[in-house]
Batch of 2 targets.
Target 1
Amino acid sequence: MNKKILLINLFILSLSLILAIITRFYKLGTAPAGLYLDEAGQGYSAYSILKTGKDEFGKSFPIVFRSFTDFKTPVYIYLVVPLIPIFGLNAFTVRFPSFFFSILTIPILYLLINKLTKHRYLASLSCLLLAISPWHILFGRTNFESNAALFFYLTGLYFFYLGLEKPKWLIASAVSFAIAIPTYHSQRIITPITLVLLFIRYRNILISKNYLKTVILGLLIGIIISLPTLSIINTPGFLARAKGLNIFTSRTKDASSFINNPFLIKTKQFASLYITYLTPRNMFLLGDYGPRSSFPDLSTFFIWQFPFYIYGLYFLVKIKKMKELKFIVFSMFLISPIPAAVTGDPYSTIRSLPLVIPQIIIIGLGIIELSNLFKKHYQKFAILFIGLIIISLSLAKLYSSIIILNEYYRGYYWDYGWEQVVKTINKLDKNLPIIVDNARFEPYIQIAFFTKYDPESFQRENYEVRPSEYYTNMDRVRDKSIGSIQTRQINWEKDLLINQYLIGDSLAISENQIEIHKLFLVLDIYYPDTTTAYRIVKTNPEYQRSLSP
Amino acid sequence: MIRLKNIVIAFVLILWPLDLYLKNTPQNYIAYIGPTLILLISYLLFKKNKIYFWVPFLLIPFVSPKLAVLPLSISLFSLFFKRNRFSALFITASLILGFIFIKPFWGQTIFKFDYEARQQVIRNTYLYPNVFLARLSQNKTKIISDKLNSNFFAITDPSNYFFGFHPREGYIENQNLGKYLFLSLPFLFLCLYYLKNNKNKGFVIPALIGSVLVLSVLTNFDRQDFVLFVPLSLVIIDGINIFEKKYSKISKYYWVIFVIFSLQQIARLFAVKL
């Protein structure tokens, strides 16, 4: 191996890791400001497991977490548990596993590409592109399970290819794939299809004498790890997400007629959703439609990467060599959108996160092949110089979108303000009850999270279902008690007659209501864009009584 | 006996004009199909190897001033394929026409002053910690480049042609026409992949790229993009022929499925109209 090439690659790989850490770790826990209810839910479930061995509904070590009856995948929550004694229960802690696994994904990607192609430039350049990828950064800074799942999936792939040379690695591969499946919903589809494709492609090796025993052993270990998941596979809880979002389970009006034939309509709908994941308009311009799964003014890829994507794709289709890379890239390219496309949401980047890998590799390939057209030294130097400028501008763009614009415009979507609400609650008169309006939110979880409310008391005060019905009973109790705090809709007739605090957004408690009922305004909490987030008021029962005849 | 493939081609050709007709008044429809008919005439001349095949393009500014620079755009890209003694004449004539119709054209472009967008940029600049970063991230060129990118990616988006922009329809500015059946998508890619060997590339490529560039600078390209009907249909039909040659065994089944889906799509067009 040429020493110069090795040094350059080492430099690019180190740069990738440094940039990845900077872009993901800077203000981790404070940007996005606020803590979305799913993040708080996962954090409080982990806290509850740590303190009591049960989740907030009293179920011992659940296989999937009931939460808001959306039944969250378990791996991420269990990963948060050991972090709480170290970092405490806060936004940083619940986002840390995402950060950690997004960083680990980079060396795994390097190893995988290097294993498949021995093309070190492509491996290191792909890592650099992943390090500055807006898509990967977003899910590396926030509490989403998809990044951890992607890491286990890629590790499984890497170990599989190692296993083709030394069979014992196939067991490690089986373990990684088995962990990937319960880590995030979309892996329930992506991993099994990948395994089937890998088996078909390498069946001659895998069923050969030297491998068969290890393959069977790996399969058994994989099944044993998956047993808890398999034991609840038919419960409404396990199927909650799949059924609720699936376009094929939704009903069509007048389905008996030809023009509304569900098969024809759903096929077309699936095709349209599927295509969105592969088209430049969504990748380079629109990005994810969700305000929490995108950054303002930034798509999933930088617009300068567009020509390289097109060229890389063309090159990869045409090229005769790099067969293993071609197989993995196109497999991931075609499989990854499937779980996302069966849901009705357009271009859901969280559900299709594994797609970032083949698309990054394609862009990297496009950059390398186009730059190979320039042979002279000064041309190479110019390309390097332009590359550095582009990376600098991309970093500036990331800073602008993630730290400046997202913070200012997206506070509402990240449930900004509950930490301040709790800080204020702690200063209020402890003898008075507090009502938090829950007409438009599920504030109980953020309040429990930020007050670090004793999970045992929470389980006692907020009974929802019997543990035996945990995965099967889909009934919910929306109103909750957290000590003297109650979360329920404000009942203006009755609540005004009691001396207590009311907390709600500006719709629940308007300025007009404060004036009419002569409420005492304790505090207005504002979003970063200066609009009112929440309002804390104290009732005025004397005034109300003075009004009654 | 009518071959199934020809029925498929008929369905490819019928959907876009039909949907455009059903969703517009007859007067508007005539205005939109004008430039397309010109492109069709030009293509027929090209097919007969007439070196003056570009002459009809010069009529486009008279029919649709919004597309006044389309002849110029096409003429410049034509230079890459067929250069002859008429090329300079074509460019000069297109340039003159472009200048004559510059006013109505300019008023319909993204270069027109946009007060709202300017105010938004100014508001955003106050969010940054220093002037350099503010100017780098929020500036006047961003307004135009954002619009250009938005148009360009929308025009080159397969969802525009095969799914009426679903699942990201534009309800206000776009009619979200069902232009081609989504099962035509493989034909498009197939033809683009083998474009080098395409007999019509001297016409199709300049017409496609030239039109895409001009449409990208319009404030609203919806319905004006019907000029792409001729080059795109040629590409798809060529893709059908390649598909039949390369995959003759499965093509028959594919035609049947294609016809079923097409019939449903056409029935739905009429159902919506009624």
Target 2
Amino acid sequence: MTEIRIPKPGDAIVDGTVAEWLCADGARVEAGQVIYRLETEKAEIEIEAPASGLLRCIGVEGQTYPVGTLVATIE
Amino acid sequence: MAATLGTDDLRALYRCMVTIRAFDARIRKGLAAGEFAFSYWPVEGQEAIAAGVCAGLERSDRMLTTYRCVGDAIAKGLPLRELAAELLGRCGGMSRGKGGAMGIHWPDAGLVASTGIVGAGAPIANGVALAARLRGDGVVTVVSFGDGATSIGAVHEAMNLAATWELPVVFLCQNNLYGEGTPVEMVTRSKHLADRAAGYGMPGVTVDGTDPLAVHAAAVEAVARARSGGGPTFLEAVAHRLQGHYFGDGMGYVDRERLALARANEPLGRFRARLAEGTLAADELDRIEREAKAAVAAAVDWASACEGPPASDLYVDVYAGRSDDGSLAAGERREPIPDGPCEEQNLAGAIREGLDQAMARDGRVVLLGEDIHDPVGGMFTVTRGLSTKYGRERVRGTPIAETAILGAAIGAALEGLRPVAELMFFDFLGVCLDQLANHAAKLRYLSGGRSGVPLVLRTTEGDRSGPQHSQSLEAWLMHVPGLKVVSASNPVDAKGLIRSAIEDDDPVVFIESMALFFDPSFVAPVPKAEYRVPIGVADVKRAGRDLSLVTHGAALRHALAAAQALSREGVDVEVIDLRSLVPLDLETVLASVAKTRRLVIAHDATRFCGPGAEIAAAVSAELHGQLAAPVGRVGGTFTPVPHAASLEALHSVSADAIAAALRRAIA
């Protein structure tokens, strides 16, 4: 299982918002496919799947989480 | 590698670029997934520069790079595992995870250092190249920096010095079109950044940084010029950065059309297509790519499995030979000053003799500074005669460029020389503080002990020389872990201390005093033999039982006069000359105060946050309850040093002011 956590894209960033899921919960995703949009104080980033498999979305759209929070898994 | 590349060379070049691309992508992927978290500066789009340049270097050639280091490090032949672990902050990193992208040191492959300070590598590269010149082994030094660095003074000072001394350096400007979040055209009117080279009398070349063969050809020419004694070259390689300044940078400042064009013409795909036209088969190119990705994956897995450095690592490698609690060891407690014939010397003469004996004994000792060569022999004649005796290769007069001087000393020290740099006045510290505080002081720590910077910075605290030529700034430097700070109060100590400073494996700031250089009352019989006064050991100049007076440097003469005055009043004052401020010999101070129960500290430096503040706090903490009076402190007023003599007298420490503080402490 691959864990997807809120990244730390920049020095002063302490949290990030799951702005939009671009793949559905339970969908099969390929490594490199963009799975969600992350918003932070500094920037908006498209997060790619680090591995291929079944996506489990944990983070809720519009919710803000501290850096390091588990927001999805790929099994 | 020859200028003309054979199939094996091209294969290696492709492998290098693919490995850089894969490594960069893997790190960004891990950062995006939250697998690990640290600041990262991507290199996508710039692979051809590092690969092309390094293909033109020998393994023994040196390189300095920046925090955008991954391409340079891989191309220079650094192991992927240690590189990954360093970025991840793990103990398997080449610097035990202490430096990250700012701590890339791999001397085995000639990678001298990376730096997190824009432009700061260039002055250091000169010192590395100077060492190669003095060794005569033909080694060339490449210093890699971004377009942003061409606006900072350090690079310009370095270019001028390198050109003047014809040093074997290649200034490699990786122009990725954006200095952090600002397009390069917003910060310069130069058409090409390489045009700057003409101002310094060196060749400047601009190449397409997305074409590894063009980069390689230009690098080979620059390296050949440097190796053959032809001096430095400024090589500008232009390649649009395809990612943000840092991972997570939204790149809102980027011209989208220009970026799209750059992505469409990205260097790796183009080079692959070129190789596929009859040089290498597609399946071989695929295989190289697979192998590179597998090697990168294995390296990052290995790094991820490493632990972070343990707590016991915190204090390791701040100084040479220290490992546990951060307390700095003094030298041998007592090394007797030898008997035997003496010569009457003032402070300047005693330091000169110490330098002379060190130079005669050790060919690694080189001197750098403004006016230090004959006939001037230094502003205060401390180095007079030494360039005549040892030659101008070892006693090097420099431009008025303190950052270049310090940087050259640092680079030379990293290469094993024992440079002694002169900063004419302490007040000039501000113009070279980055080199001293961010580099000389930190490189041992940031390299996990792979590197060390055994340099001496001689400087002068002033006297009656106005607000910008008179300050005593030792407290600034006492605050910097990694530096040692020594202050000479008399000719006998000065000769022995300068020798210890030169032989010390850490950077030592050696403070001399303008007030004492030629003071006839400070002439003393100095032993002609070689000797050392240990760093970190204070000296009890006058024993006493009623009151402890702690001082250093030029203030000692006032302290002794005040003690004399008090003795006439029946008060027996013990006077301690610290000699070293870092390491601070608190043991001697505490032993004295435990006996006298009273302490006054006097120094020329501004009293507010001066050295005395730290000593007072330490003594109060250790001997609270035993003190019979509050700790007294005498120092300069919290004003600039005024020019007018009437005001300077009010600012400065005097025997009367110290005597008054002593009387308060004894009352």
